[in-house]
Amino acid sequence: MARKQRATIFGAGYVGLTTAVLFANCGVEVTLVEVNPERLKSLRAGKSFFYEAGINELLQNALKQGSLGLENEAELALKHAGVIFSCVGTPDYPDGSSNLSYVYEVADRVAAFASDDAVFVQKSTVPVGTGEKIEASFKAKSCPVSYVSNPEFLREGTAIQDSLWFDRVVVGGTNPKACQTVIELYKRIEENRDKLAKIAGIPRVDHEPGHYITTNRNSAELIKVTANAFLALKISFANSIAKLADQADADVNDVMDAVGADRRIGRAFLNAGRGYGGGCFPKDVSGLIASASDHGVDMPIMIAASDVNESMPGYIAKKVQENLKSLQGKKIAVLGLSFKSGTSDARKSPGVSLANSLDKGKADVQVYDPHANGEAKEELRNGVKICNTMSEAITKCDAVIIATDWPEFKTADIKSMASKMSGSLFVDAMNCFDKNKVKDSGLKYVGVGRT
Length: 451
Ligand code: UDX
Fold this sequence. Notes:
The chain is built from 19 helices and 14 strands. The strands form two sheets. Strands 3-2-1-4-5-6-7-8 form an eight-stranded mixed β-sheet, sandwiched between helices. A six-stranded parallel β-sheet has the order 11-10-9-12-13-14. By secondary structure, it is α/β, with parallel strands linked by helices. Helix 1 crosses helix 3 (about 55-65) and helix 13 crosses helix 14. Helix 19 links the parallel strand 13 and strand 14. About 45% of the residues lie in helices and about 15% in strands. Uridine-5'-diphosphate-xylopyranose binds near residues 154, 278 and 280.
């Protein structure tokens, strides 16, 4: 490539920041635009405002070598950018549909300031048909910028690893040259992945080479939401079977191990427990239902998946109540507030819902998370006490609930946990413990579908 590639990236969330620091560490001049002043300040000091393994190391290296600019305004950077990524949030409205105002704002800035030969890449998760509307608005403004849909599949907690050792990169658009420009950028990451992993301080992954998939714009948009909806469906399916296993004296872990051994099915995302949370699955499922409805299509299968998921924290709280006879005045520790391990993200977290529902039931709730205490604080009811250590949370408790499978919990000495508690109820809402080991420590093991 003769000309130095310049990219402008809108939005420093999980997707935008990961994309920015990776490109900036493999020869691309990146300007990252973030409008939140506190986040910007933290990033300029070399610190991500969320916890993600390896991200600070890549950020600091990019800042040191001068390949990453951090701005709250993009006008100048847009003029020079060859490729512009939109990675802004698409939160859900109360009716479940996607709020696309940030996406359209970015598109307006691009139409106003980008150079004519720029490529505009949509990485934000948008309902199918959004790109078509943006392209129409570009046309109406006589803006010749090419539009490419490039959905993101990284998971929080393993964002860098997923980006370096990806399963697929999907690009959809009408301009083949623009699609190729985007693919070339990802190839830089692929070619530099050992170096990038070293800077990030994360281990190499043994992985088959990923696929580059080119398709049309609307299919690319639909691929992203379909993938997330299917994974959510698998989880809710596993949770439905878990409820049956509870009644039928079966162990859902054994069931799913055997079912998942069928290569046509696969074991991934069949872990039953307190259900899915986070910034993606709940929103993407409700977004798909709303977008299908806009196209005159019913999605009862996804409505059911969402209903099952929302029932899980209450289902577990009921198990606790049945085992303790009553919740009132009982001291209960909820361990794990992030929506999964490896992240500080507590958005739509089942652990938080569980703690709040026990507090509503008049239990005396104490919570602890190694990384998410801060982010969960806003979401927790006033009565819930946030503890600084696991030991503080479980001391003199009638029951302990594992709501996130953090290594700190999974490797804890159960006998020593039991000695700190005053009661003996151990609720494994992640189904991640050896139930016999828990029972051997004198505790009563209650899983989800593991009687
Ligand atoms: C998801 C998609 O996996 C990713 O491809 C997309 O880009 C963003 O959304 P993420 O939300 O980071 O990623 O987390 P993921 O690992 O998929 O887990 C989502 C939720 O499902 C978590 O709450 C997790 O605990 C739960 N889960 C996952 C289960 O309850 N059971 C499982 O078997 C797997």
